[in-house]
Design brief:
Layout lengths: L11 H30 L4 H14 L3 H6 L3 H6 L2 H14 L9
Amino acid sequence: MRLTAPHPPHSKRARAARRRRLAALGALGLVALLVGMVLGAGHESSSQRAAERYVRAWERDDYAAMYGQLTPESKRRLSPAAFRSAYRKARDTATVVRLGAG
């Protein structure tokens, strides 16, 4: 007894069926990509939110809020007064007139 496929591998029917499967797979992949792009575009990471809070505080010269976002390790190495002094010195050295993020 000989086992054979319903259609020889190079028949027109087999090629057409393969093209339909590939087209369906491609369409499914495209839909998955588009859904991922839409969902991903609306996502904002926690690190991005933290950076934005830090910059907004910096724009207001709110050194206490900026210091509050430091890690415990950084707070152990730097006092609030030293932190504030370093930022003010950097601002004055750079002759900053206005700070704006964007």
